[in-house]
Amino acid sequence: MSASPVDYEYLRTVVLRNSGNQVDVTRNYLFESRLQGLLRNRGFDSLTQLVSVLRSGNGHGLERSVAEAMTINETSFFRDTATFDYLRETLLPALIESRRDTRTLRFWSAASSSGQEAYSIAMMLREHFPLLAGWRIDILGTDLSAEMVERSSAGRYQRIEVNRGLPARLLVKYFVRTGDDWEVHPDLKRLCRFQQRNLCQPTGLPESFDVIFLRNVMIYFNQDTRRQVLLTIHRALPPDGILFLGLSEQPRMDSHWQTMLTPKTVWYKPIR
Ligand SMILES: C[S@@+](CC[C@H](N)C(=O)[O-])C[C@H]1O[C@@H](n2cnc3c(N)ncnc32)[C@H](O)[C@@H]1O
Question: Where are the alpha helices (DSSP H) in the chain?
Answer without folding.
Answer: 5-19, 29-34, 36-42, 47-56, 62-69, 81-86, 92-98, 116-128, 146-154, 159-162, 168-174, 186-189, 223-235
